[in-house]
Amino acid sequence: MSAVEQNRSVIWNTSTPELTAKPPRNLGRIWIPERLLGWIIPVSVLLVWELFALLGMLPPNWLPAPTVVAQTIYQLAVAGDLWKHAGITIARVAVGFLLGASAGTLLGGLTGSLPVARKLLDPTVQALRGVPSIAWVPLFLLWLGIQETSKITLIALGAFFPVYLNLSVAMRHVDPKLLEVGKLYRLSTFQMVRRINLPAALPEYIVGLRSGLGLAWMFVVAAELLGASSGIGYLMVDGQMTGRASIILASVLLFAVFGKATDWMMNAVGRRLLGHRAR
Amino acid sequence: MDSDSFRQRGTVDIQIAYKAFAGSHGKLLALRDILLTINPGEFMCVVGGSGCGKTTLLRIIAGLETEYEGAVFLDGKQLTGTGLDRGVVFQEHRLLSWLTVHDNVAFGLAGLPPEERSREIRRYISLVGLDDFKYEYPHQLSGGMSQRVAIARALVGRPEVLLLDEPFASLDALTRMRMQQEILRIWEAERTTVVLVTHDIEEAVYLADRVVIMSPQPGTLRKILPVHLPRPRDRTDREFVRLRKSVHDELFSPGSTAYLSLENF
Predict the structure, then answer these.
(1) Which CATH number describes the domain made up of A69-274?
(2) Where are the alpha helices (DSSP H) in A55-136?
(3) What are the residue boundaries of the structural domains of chain A, listed by start?
Protein backbone atom coordinates (compact mmCIF):
# COMPACT_ATOMS: atom_id res chain seq x y z
CA MET A 1 0.00 0.00 0.00
CA SER A 2 1.42 3.35 -0.97
CA ALA A 3 1.29 6.31 1.38
CA VAL A 4 -1.48 7.90 -0.68
CA GLU A 5 -3.57 4.76 -0.60
CA GLN A 6 -3.04 4.50 3.10
CA ASN A 7 -4.25 8.03 3.63
CA ARG A 8 -7.28 7.36 1.54
CA SER A 9 -8.09 4.21 3.47
CA VAL A 10 -8.05 6.24 6.67
CA ILE A 11 -10.63 8.62 5.21
CA TRP A 12 -12.85 5.80 3.98
CA ASN A 13 -12.55 3.90 7.20
CA THR A 14 -13.68 6.75 9.35
CA SER A 15 -16.68 7.56 7.19
CA THR A 16 -18.17 4.16 6.36
CA PRO A 17 -19.20 2.15 9.40
CA GLU A 18 -18.98 -1.31 7.87
CA LEU A 19 -15.32 -0.76 7.08
CA THR A 20 -14.20 0.75 10.38
CA ALA A 21 -13.99 -2.47 12.33
CA LYS A 22 -12.09 -4.72 10.01
CA PRO A 23 -8.67 -3.93 8.68
CA PRO A 24 -5.95 -3.58 11.34
CA ARG A 25 -3.72 -0.59 10.71
CA ASN A 26 0.01 -0.67 10.76
CA LEU A 27 1.11 2.15 13.07
CA GLY A 28 4.83 1.82 12.80
CA ARG A 29 5.26 -1.71 14.04
CA ILE A 30 2.20 -2.18 16.28
CA TRP A 31 -1.03 -3.43 14.75
CA ILE A 32 -4.02 -1.60 16.22
CA PRO A 33 -7.59 -1.97 14.95
CA GLU A 34 -8.95 1.42 13.90
CA ARG A 35 -11.88 1.40 16.27
CA LEU A 36 -9.49 1.17 19.22
CA LEU A 37 -7.70 4.41 18.26
CA GLY A 38 -10.03 6.47 20.46
CA TRP A 39 -9.00 4.43 23.50
CA ILE A 40 -5.27 5.20 23.25
CA ILE A 41 -5.34 8.56 25.06
CA PRO A 42 -7.67 7.64 27.98
CA VAL A 43 -5.91 4.32 28.57
CA SER A 44 -2.48 6.00 28.48
CA VAL A 45 -3.62 8.69 30.90
CA LEU A 46 -4.95 6.04 33.28
CA LEU A 47 -1.70 4.06 33.05
CA VAL A 48 0.50 7.11 33.68
CA TRP A 49 -1.81 8.21 36.49
CA GLU A 50 -1.63 4.75 38.08
CA LEU A 51 2.15 4.66 37.64
CA PHE A 52 2.65 8.08 39.25
CA ALA A 53 0.40 7.05 42.13
CA LEU A 54 2.38 3.83 42.61
CA LEU A 55 5.62 5.80 42.68
CA GLY A 56 4.10 7.96 45.43
CA MET A 57 4.28 11.10 43.32
CA LEU A 58 0.55 11.90 43.85
CA PRO A 59 -0.84 12.54 47.33
CA PRO A 60 -3.46 9.72 47.70
CA ASN A 61 -6.03 11.88 49.48
CA TRP A 62 -5.95 14.40 46.63
CA LEU A 63 -5.70 12.19 43.60
CA PRO A 64 -6.00 8.49 44.40
CA ALA A 65 -4.96 5.93 41.80
CA PRO A 66 -7.55 4.66 39.30
CA THR A 67 -7.40 1.24 40.92
CA VAL A 68 -8.27 2.82 44.25
CA VAL A 69 -11.29 4.55 42.67
CA ALA A 70 -12.38 1.25 41.15
CA GLN A 71 -11.90 -0.43 44.51
CA THR A 72 -14.04 2.27 46.17
CA ILE A 73 -16.87 1.61 43.71
CA TYR A 74 -16.53 -2.11 44.34
CA GLN A 75 -16.67 -1.62 48.10
CA LEU A 76 -19.71 0.67 47.81
CA ALA A 77 -21.41 -1.96 45.67
CA VAL A 78 -20.63 -4.79 48.09
CA ALA A 79 -21.78 -2.78 51.10
CA GLY A 80 -25.02 -1.94 49.27
CA ASP A 81 -24.47 1.82 49.55
CA LEU A 82 -23.97 2.14 45.81
CA TRP A 83 -27.40 0.71 44.93
CA LYS A 84 -29.13 2.70 47.62
CA HIS A 85 -27.63 6.04 46.56
CA ALA A 86 -27.72 5.42 42.83
CA GLY A 87 -31.31 4.20 43.10
CA ILE A 88 -32.41 7.36 44.88
CA THR A 89 -30.61 9.63 42.42
CA ILE A 90 -32.06 7.81 39.43
CA ALA A 91 -35.54 7.95 40.96
CA ARG A 92 -35.20 11.72 41.48
CA VAL A 93 -34.07 12.24 37.90
CA ALA A 94 -36.84 10.00 36.57
CA VAL A 95 -39.65 11.67 38.51
CA GLY A 96 -38.31 15.20 37.96
CA PHE A 97 -37.71 14.64 34.26
CA LEU A 98 -41.11 13.02 33.77
CA LEU A 99 -42.89 15.92 35.46
CA GLY A 100 -40.84 18.61 33.71
CA ALA A 101 -41.00 16.98 30.29
CA SER A 102 -44.76 16.39 30.62
CA ALA A 103 -45.37 20.01 31.55
CA GLY A 104 -43.07 21.11 28.72
CA THR A 105 -44.91 18.88 26.25
CA LEU A 106 -48.30 20.11 27.38
CA LEU A 107 -47.52 23.82 27.40
CA GLY A 108 -45.20 23.59 24.38
CA GLY A 109 -47.88 21.78 22.41
CA LEU A 110 -50.49 24.29 23.50
CA THR A 111 -48.46 27.39 22.62
CA GLY A 112 -47.24 25.71 19.45
CA SER A 113 -50.72 25.10 18.13
CA LEU A 114 -52.85 27.96 19.45
CA PRO A 115 -51.71 31.54 18.79
CA VAL A 116 -53.89 32.74 21.69
CA ALA A 117 -52.15 30.37 24.09
CA ARG A 118 -48.77 31.53 22.84
CA LYS A 119 -49.60 35.20 23.32
CA LEU A 120 -50.94 34.45 26.78
CA LEU A 121 -48.24 32.10 28.07
CA ASP A 122 -45.05 32.52 26.10
CA PRO A 123 -43.94 35.92 27.49
CA THR A 124 -44.22 34.62 31.06
CA VAL A 125 -42.36 31.40 30.29
CA GLN A 126 -39.64 33.33 28.45
CA ALA A 127 -39.27 35.72 31.39
CA LEU A 128 -38.95 32.81 33.84
CA ARG A 129 -36.43 31.19 31.53
CA GLY A 130 -34.24 34.24 32.01
CA VAL A 131 -33.70 33.26 35.65
CA PRO A 132 -30.84 30.76 36.06
CA SER A 133 -32.68 27.76 37.48
CA ILE A 134 -30.27 27.33 40.42
CA ALA A 135 -31.29 30.80 41.59
CA TRP A 136 -34.67 29.33 42.61
CA VAL A 137 -33.05 26.98 45.13
CA PRO A 138 -33.33 29.22 48.22
CA LEU A 139 -37.00 29.87 47.48
CA PHE A 140 -37.70 26.19 46.88
CA LEU A 141 -35.97 25.31 50.13
CA LEU A 142 -37.94 27.96 51.96
CA TRP A 143 -41.28 26.95 50.46
CA LEU A 144 -40.91 23.24 49.99
CA GLY A 145 -38.41 22.29 52.66
CA ILE A 146 -35.26 20.25 52.31
CA GLN A 147 -37.11 17.02 51.47
CA GLU A 148 -37.71 15.48 48.07
CA THR A 149 -40.27 18.02 46.82
CA SER A 150 -37.77 20.85 46.44
CA LYS A 151 -35.22 18.63 44.68
CA ILE A 152 -37.72 17.20 42.25
CA THR A 153 -39.14 20.64 41.54
CA LEU A 154 -35.68 21.90 40.65
CA ILE A 155 -35.01 18.93 38.36
CA ALA A 156 -38.42 19.29 36.72
CA LEU A 157 -37.78 22.99 36.14
CA GLY A 158 -34.49 22.19 34.43
CA ALA A 159 -36.08 19.58 32.17
CA PHE A 160 -39.09 21.78 31.38
CA PHE A 161 -37.52 24.61 29.38
CA PRO A 162 -35.75 22.79 26.54
CA VAL A 163 -38.76 20.51 26.00
CA TYR A 164 -41.19 23.44 26.03
CA LEU A 165 -39.05 25.64 23.82
CA ASN A 166 -38.15 23.06 21.18
CA LEU A 167 -41.68 21.74 20.79
CA SER A 168 -43.34 25.15 20.76
CA VAL A 169 -40.93 26.70 18.26
CA ALA A 170 -40.82 23.65 15.98
CA MET A 171 -44.61 23.41 15.84
CA ARG A 172 -44.92 27.07 14.94
CA HIS A 173 -42.22 26.93 12.28
CA VAL A 174 -43.70 24.14 10.20
CA ASP A 175 -43.32 24.82 6.47
CA PRO A 176 -46.41 26.89 5.49
CA LYS A 177 -46.44 25.01 2.19
CA LEU A 178 -47.26 21.82 4.06
CA LEU A 179 -49.97 23.60 6.04
CA GLU A 180 -51.48 24.62 2.70
CA VAL A 181 -51.74 20.94 1.80
CA GLY A 182 -53.70 20.43 5.00
CA LYS A 183 -55.90 23.35 4.06
CA LEU A 184 -56.61 21.79 0.65
CA TYR A 185 -57.99 18.73 2.40
CA ARG A 186 -60.01 20.92 4.76
CA LEU A 187 -58.39 19.69 7.96
CA SER A 188 -59.71 21.24 11.16
CA THR A 189 -57.28 23.09 13.45
CA PHE A 190 -57.01 20.00 15.62
CA GLN A 191 -56.43 17.65 12.66
CA MET A 192 -53.87 20.08 11.26
CA VAL A 193 -51.94 20.00 14.53
CA ARG A 194 -52.13 16.24 14.88
CA ARG A 195 -51.41 15.30 11.27
CA ILE A 196 -48.94 18.03 10.23
CA ASN A 197 -47.55 20.24 13.02
CA LEU A 198 -46.85 17.48 15.54
CA PRO A 199 -45.13 14.97 13.25
CA ALA A 200 -43.20 17.78 11.57
CA ALA A 201 -41.96 18.96 14.98
CA LEU A 202 -41.00 15.48 16.21
CA PRO A 203 -37.24 15.62 15.45
CA GLU A 204 -36.85 18.94 17.31
CA TYR A 205 -39.03 17.64 20.13
CA ILE A 206 -36.72 14.67 20.62
CA VAL A 207 -33.72 17.00 20.68
CA GLY A 208 -35.58 18.94 23.39
CA LEU A 209 -36.19 15.77 25.40
CA ARG A 210 -32.52 14.86 25.20
CA SER A 211 -31.31 18.24 26.40
CA GLY A 212 -34.02 18.22 29.08
CA LEU A 213 -32.70 14.90 30.33
CA GLY A 214 -29.14 16.26 30.33
CA LEU A 215 -30.29 19.22 32.42
CA ALA A 216 -32.19 16.89 34.77
CA TRP A 217 -28.87 15.17 35.54
CA MET A 218 -27.17 18.51 36.01
CA PHE A 219 -29.78 19.70 38.48
CA VAL A 220 -29.89 16.46 40.45
CA VAL A 221 -26.19 17.04 41.20
CA ALA A 222 -26.94 20.60 42.27
CA ALA A 223 -29.90 19.52 44.40
CA GLU A 224 -27.98 16.75 46.12
CA LEU A 225 -24.92 18.91 46.71
CA LEU A 226 -27.05 21.61 48.32
CA GLY A 227 -28.65 19.41 50.91
CA ALA A 228 -29.37 15.72 50.87
CA SER A 229 -28.85 12.71 53.09
CA SER A 230 -28.76 10.25 50.21
CA GLY A 231 -27.96 10.06 46.51
CA ILE A 232 -24.73 10.10 44.54
CA GLY A 233 -24.44 13.85 45.09
CA TYR A 234 -24.61 13.22 48.82
CA LEU A 235 -21.78 10.66 48.43
CA MET A 236 -19.71 13.44 46.87
CA VAL A 237 -20.37 15.83 49.74
CA ASP A 238 -19.62 13.01 52.17
CA GLY A 239 -16.34 12.30 50.39
CA GLN A 240 -15.44 15.96 50.55
CA MET A 241 -16.29 16.25 54.27
CA THR A 242 -14.33 13.14 55.18
CA GLY A 243 -11.47 14.01 52.85
CA ARG A 244 -11.83 10.91 50.66
CA ALA A 245 -11.14 11.99 47.09
CA SER A 246 -11.68 8.42 45.88
CA ILE A 247 -15.38 8.63 46.78
CA ILE A 248 -15.74 11.96 44.95
CA LEU A 249 -14.06 10.54 41.86
CA ALA A 250 -16.17 7.39 42.05
CA SER A 251 -19.31 9.55 42.20
CA VAL A 252 -18.18 11.62 39.21
CA LEU A 253 -17.66 8.39 37.29
CA LEU A 254 -21.11 7.11 38.28
CA PHE A 255 -22.78 10.34 37.14
CA ALA A 256 -20.95 10.08 33.82
CA VAL A 257 -22.04 6.48 33.30
CA PHE A 258 -25.68 7.05 34.26
CA GLY A 259 -25.95 10.28 32.27
CA LYS A 260 -24.52 8.65 29.17
CA ALA A 261 -26.66 5.53 29.56
CA THR A 262 -29.95 7.43 29.84
CA ASP A 263 -29.02 9.69 26.94
CA TRP A 264 -28.29 6.62 24.87
CA MET A 265 -31.67 5.16 25.79
CA MET A 266 -33.46 8.39 24.91
CA ASN A 267 -31.62 8.50 21.62
CA ALA A 268 -32.66 4.94 20.84
CA VAL A 269 -36.30 5.77 21.59
CA GLY A 270 -35.98 8.87 19.39
CA ARG A 271 -34.62 6.88 16.48
CA ARG A 272 -37.44 4.42 16.77
CA LEU A 273 -40.00 7.22 16.74
CA LEU A 274 -38.42 8.91 13.74
CA GLY A 275 -38.34 5.65 11.81
CA HIS A 276 -36.98 5.86 8.29
CA ARG A 277 -37.53 9.55 7.97
CA ALA A 278 -34.90 11.70 6.32
CA ARG A 279 -32.63 14.07 8.32
CA MET B 1 -61.90 17.20 -28.37
CA ASP B 2 -65.39 16.68 -27.05
CA SER B 3 -65.24 12.90 -27.06
CA ASP B 4 -66.07 12.99 -23.36
CA SER B 5 -69.26 15.02 -23.59
CA PHE B 6 -70.99 12.31 -21.57
CA ARG B 7 -69.28 13.76 -18.58
CA GLN B 8 -71.26 16.62 -17.15
CA ARG B 9 -69.32 17.41 -14.03
CA GLY B 10 -66.19 19.51 -13.93
CA THR B 11 -67.23 22.81 -15.52
CA VAL B 12 -65.22 25.71 -14.11
CA ASP B 13 -66.63 29.17 -14.60
CA ILE B 14 -64.21 31.95 -13.78
CA GLN B 15 -65.48 35.51 -13.42
CA ILE B 16 -62.83 37.58 -11.70
CA ALA B 17 -63.16 41.36 -11.82
CA TYR B 18 -59.82 41.90 -10.10
CA LYS B 19 -57.44 40.49 -7.55
CA ALA B 20 -55.05 42.79 -5.72
CA PHE B 21 -52.21 42.14 -3.28
CA ALA B 22 -51.09 44.62 -0.66
CA GLY B 23 -47.60 45.65 -1.79
CA SER B 24 -45.05 47.99 -0.26
CA HIS B 25 -46.20 50.80 -2.60
CA GLY B 26 -49.88 50.35 -2.03
CA LYS B 27 -52.03 47.83 -3.82
CA LEU B 28 -50.61 45.67 -6.56
CA LEU B 29 -53.09 44.50 -9.18
CA ALA B 30 -52.43 40.82 -9.92
CA LEU B 31 -55.43 39.95 -12.07
CA ARG B 32 -58.06 41.92 -13.99
CA ASP B 33 -61.10 40.93 -16.02
CA ILE B 34 -60.61 37.18 -16.15
CA LEU B 35 -63.65 35.65 -17.83
CA LEU B 36 -63.11 32.04 -18.72
CA THR B 37 -65.12 28.84 -18.88
CA ILE B 38 -63.34 25.51 -18.71
CA ASN B 39 -65.35 22.63 -20.10
CA PRO B 40 -65.87 19.29 -18.36
CA GLY B 41 -62.97 16.94 -19.09
CA GLU B 42 -61.01 19.63 -20.87
CA PHE B 43 -57.24 19.91 -20.63
CA MET B 44 -56.53 23.61 -20.30
CA CYS B 45 -53.03 25.08 -20.14
CA VAL B 46 -52.30 28.60 -18.94
CA VAL B 47 -49.04 30.14 -20.18
CA GLY B 48 -47.40 33.43 -19.40
CA GLY B 49 -44.21 34.94 -18.04
CA SER B 50 -43.45 35.22 -14.37
CA GLY B 51 -45.69 37.70 -12.61
CA CYS B 52 -48.55 37.39 -15.06
CA GLY B 53 -50.83 36.10 -12.33
CA LYS B 54 -51.22 32.57 -13.68
CA THR B 55 -50.36 30.96 -10.35
CA THR B 56 -52.67 33.40 -8.55
CA LEU B 57 -55.44 32.37 -10.93
CA LEU B 58 -54.85 28.70 -10.12
CA ARG B 59 -54.76 29.40 -6.39
CA ILE B 60 -58.09 31.21 -6.66
CA ILE B 61 -59.65 28.17 -8.34
CA ALA B 62 -58.08 25.94 -5.66
CA GLY B 63 -59.63 28.12 -2.97
CA LEU B 64 -56.28 29.06 -1.43
CA GLU B 65 -56.85 32.74 -2.33
CA THR B 66 -60.24 33.98 -1.21
CA GLU B 67 -59.76 37.76 -1.19
CA TYR B 68 -60.75 38.93 -4.67
CA GLU B 69 -63.54 40.66 -6.54
CA GLY B 70 -65.63 38.22 -8.51
CA ALA B 71 -66.60 34.61 -8.31
CA VAL B 72 -65.57 31.15 -9.46
CA PHE B 73 -68.16 28.45 -10.04
CA LEU B 74 -67.74 24.71 -10.22
CA ASP B 75 -70.72 23.09 -11.95
CA GLY B 76 -72.72 26.21 -11.23
CA LYS B 77 -71.91 26.26 -7.52
CA GLN B 78 -69.91 29.21 -6.24
CA LEU B 79 -66.61 28.21 -4.63
CA THR B 80 -65.87 29.75 -1.24
CA GLY B 81 -62.69 27.96 -0.20
CA THR B 82 -60.72 24.76 -0.66
CA GLY B 83 -62.56 21.54 -1.29
CA LEU B 84 -62.12 17.87 -2.06
CA ASP B 85 -63.77 18.45 -5.46
CA ARG B 86 -60.46 19.96 -6.60
CA GLY B 87 -57.08 18.19 -6.52
CA VAL B 88 -53.93 20.32 -6.50
CA VAL B 89 -50.33 19.58 -7.49
CA PHE B 90 -47.72 22.24 -6.77
CA GLN B 91 -44.33 22.91 -8.33
CA GLU B 92 -42.74 21.33 -5.24
CA HIS B 93 -44.12 17.90 -4.40
CA ARG B 94 -45.11 18.97 -0.84
CA LEU B 95 -45.14 15.39 0.41
CA LEU B 96 -45.02 14.74 4.15
CA SER B 97 -41.53 13.44 4.89
CA TRP B 98 -42.70 11.23 7.78
CA LEU B 99 -45.21 9.27 5.70
CA THR B 100 -44.61 6.50 3.18
CA VAL B 101 -45.75 6.81 -0.43
CA HIS B 102 -48.86 4.83 0.53
CA ASP B 103 -49.67 7.06 3.51
CA ASN B 104 -48.98 10.24 1.58
CA VAL B 105 -51.51 9.16 -1.04
CA ALA B 106 -53.91 8.14 1.77
CA PHE B 107 -53.63 11.69 3.11
CA GLY B 108 -55.80 12.84 0.21
CA LEU B 109 -58.61 10.45 1.08
CA ALA B 110 -61.13 10.75 3.87
CA GLY B 111 -64.21 8.90 5.02
CA LEU B 112 -64.39 5.59 3.14
CA PRO B 113 -64.85 2.05 4.47
CA PRO B 114 -61.40 0.44 5.01
CA GLU B 115 -61.46 -2.05 2.11
CA GLU B 116 -62.66 0.51 -0.41
CA ARG B 117 -60.16 2.99 0.95
CA SER B 118 -57.17 0.72 0.53
CA ARG B 119 -58.41 -0.33 -2.92
CA GLU B 120 -58.59 3.30 -4.02
CA ILE B 121 -55.12 4.03 -2.65
CA ARG B 122 -53.67 1.01 -4.43
CA ARG B 123 -55.43 1.96 -7.65
CA TYR B 124 -53.92 5.43 -7.71
CA ILE B 125 -50.44 4.33 -6.69
CA SER B 126 -50.70 1.90 -9.56
CA LEU B 127 -52.02 4.58 -11.93
CA VAL B 128 -48.88 6.68 -11.41
CA GLY B 129 -46.70 3.58 -11.74
CA LEU B 130 -45.31 3.35 -8.22
CA ASP B 131 -46.47 -0.14 -7.20
CA ASP B 132 -42.97 -1.10 -6.16
CA PHE B 133 -42.45 1.99 -4.05
CA LYS B 134 -45.49 1.93 -1.75
CA TYR B 135 -43.47 1.72 1.43
CA GLU B 136 -40.64 4.07 0.49
CA TYR B 137 -40.29 7.48 2.13
CA PRO B 138 -40.17 10.72 0.09
CA HIS B 139 -36.43 11.20 0.62
CA GLN B 140 -35.86 7.86 -1.11
CA LEU B 141 -37.63 9.03 -4.30
CA SER B 142 -36.41 10.98 -7.31
CA GLY B 143 -38.01 14.31 -8.26
CA GLY B 144 -40.17 12.71 -10.95
CA MET B 145 -41.35 9.95 -8.63
CA SER B 146 -42.21 12.47 -5.90
CA GLN B 147 -44.37 14.40 -8.37
CA ARG B 148 -46.12 11.14 -9.31
CA VAL B 149 -46.97 10.63 -5.65
CA ALA B 150 -48.25 14.20 -5.48
CA ILE B 151 -50.44 13.53 -8.54
CA ALA B 152 -51.79 10.33 -6.96
CA ARG B 153 -52.56 12.23 -3.74
CA ALA B 154 -54.40 14.90 -5.73
CA LEU B 155 -56.45 12.34 -7.68
CA VAL B 156 -57.24 9.71 -5.04
CA GLY B 157 -60.29 11.60 -3.75
CA ARG B 158 -61.65 11.62 -7.33
CA PRO B 159 -61.87 15.38 -7.70
CA GLU B 160 -63.75 16.93 -10.58
CA VAL B 161 -60.88 19.24 -11.41
CA LEU B 162 -57.14 18.65 -11.27
CA LEU B 163 -55.11 21.84 -10.82
CA LEU B 164 -51.41 21.72 -11.60
CA ASP B 165 -49.10 24.65 -10.85
CA GLU B 166 -45.94 24.28 -12.96
CA PRO B 167 -45.76 20.66 -11.84
CA PHE B 168 -42.77 19.70 -13.98
CA ALA B 169 -40.78 22.95 -13.81
CA SER B 170 -38.22 21.61 -11.35
CA LEU B 171 -37.61 18.34 -13.22
CA ASP B 172 -34.84 17.72 -15.74
CA ALA B 173 -35.77 17.95 -19.43
CA LEU B 174 -36.05 14.20 -20.09
CA THR B 175 -38.05 13.48 -16.94
CA ARG B 176 -40.28 16.43 -17.78
CA MET B 177 -41.09 15.01 -21.23
CA ARG B 178 -41.85 11.59 -19.73
CA MET B 179 -44.10 13.20 -17.10
CA GLN B 180 -45.94 15.13 -19.82
CA GLN B 181 -46.78 11.82 -21.50
CA GLU B 182 -47.74 10.39 -18.12
CA ILE B 183 -50.13 13.19 -17.23
CA LEU B 184 -51.88 12.72 -20.59
CA ARG B 185 -52.21 8.99 -19.96
CA ILE B 186 -53.60 9.67 -16.46
CA TRP B 187 -55.97 12.32 -17.79
CA GLU B 188 -57.23 9.95 -20.47
CA ALA B 189 -57.84 7.31 -17.79
CA GLU B 190 -59.53 9.68 -15.34
CA ARG B 191 -61.18 12.23 -17.63
CA THR B 192 -61.13 14.96 -15.02
CA THR B 193 -60.99 18.58 -16.03
CA VAL B 194 -57.34 19.67 -15.92
CA VAL B 195 -55.93 23.16 -15.53
CA LEU B 196 -52.15 23.25 -15.86
CA VAL B 197 -50.16 26.44 -15.37
CA THR B 198 -46.78 26.62 -17.07
CA HIS B 199 -44.21 28.98 -18.54
CA ASP B 200 -43.14 26.32 -21.02
CA ILE B 201 -44.78 27.05 -24.41
CA GLU B 202 -44.01 23.63 -25.84
CA GLU B 203 -45.48 21.93 -22.80
CA ALA B 204 -48.69 23.90 -23.20
CA VAL B 205 -49.06 23.08 -26.93
CA TYR B 206 -48.15 19.44 -26.30
CA LEU B 207 -50.75 18.93 -23.59
CA ALA B 208 -53.67 21.31 -24.01
CA ASP B 209 -57.03 21.25 -25.72
CA ARG B 210 -56.87 25.02 -25.36
CA VAL B 211 -53.94 27.25 -24.46
CA VAL B 212 -54.72 30.37 -22.46
CA ILE B 213 -52.10 33.08 -22.97
CA MET B 214 -51.83 35.65 -20.19
CA SER B 215 -50.08 39.02 -20.10
CA PRO B 216 -48.88 40.68 -16.91
CA GLN B 217 -49.43 43.86 -14.95
CA PRO B 218 -52.13 43.36 -14.34
CA GLY B 219 -52.65 39.74 -15.30
CA THR B 220 -55.22 39.57 -18.07
CA LEU B 221 -56.27 37.04 -20.69
CA ARG B 222 -54.50 37.88 -23.91
CA LYS B 223 -55.64 35.10 -26.15
CA ILE B 224 -57.17 31.63 -26.07
CA LEU B 225 -55.74 29.28 -28.67
CA PRO B 226 -57.41 25.92 -29.44
CA VAL B 227 -55.05 23.05 -30.31
CA HIS B 228 -56.78 20.68 -32.71
CA LEU B 229 -53.97 18.17 -33.01
CA PRO B 230 -54.54 14.47 -32.38
CA ARG B 231 -52.68 12.87 -29.48
CA PRO B 232 -50.00 11.66 -29.05
CA ARG B 233 -48.61 14.84 -30.52
CA ASP B 234 -45.37 15.04 -32.44
CA ARG B 235 -43.27 17.94 -31.22
CA THR B 236 -41.56 18.20 -34.62
CA ASP B 237 -44.79 18.14 -36.61
CA ARG B 238 -45.27 21.25 -38.82
CA GLU B 239 -48.59 22.23 -37.34
CA PHE B 240 -47.20 21.71 -33.83
CA VAL B 241 -44.25 23.97 -34.58
CA ARG B 242 -46.56 26.57 -36.14
CA LEU B 243 -48.80 26.61 -33.07
CA ARG B 244 -45.80 26.87 -30.79
CA LYS B 245 -44.57 29.83 -32.81
CA SER B 246 -47.92 31.56 -32.68
CA VAL B 247 -47.99 31.26 -28.87
CA HIS B 248 -44.43 32.51 -28.80
CA ASP B 249 -45.26 35.46 -31.08
CA GLU B 250 -48.26 36.30 -28.97
CA LEU B 251 -46.03 36.52 -25.91
CA PHE B 252 -43.15 38.38 -27.54
CA SER B 253 -44.67 40.39 -30.41
CA PRO B 254 -43.95 44.14 -30.48
CA GLY B 255 -46.57 45.87 -28.44
CA SER B 256 -47.14 42.74 -26.42
CA THR B 257 -46.84 43.33 -22.73
CA ALA B 258 -46.86 39.65 -21.95
CA TYR B 259 -43.20 39.54 -21.01
CA LEU B 260 -42.64 43.09 -19.80
CA SER B 261 -40.73 43.05 -16.57
CA LEU B 262 -41.15 45.31 -13.57
CA GLU B 263 -38.15 47.43 -14.56
CA ASN B 264 -40.08 48.84 -17.53
CA PHE B 265 -42.46 50.59 -15.19
Answers:
(1) 1.10.3720.10
(2) 66-79, 81-113, 115-129
(3) 3-58, 69-274
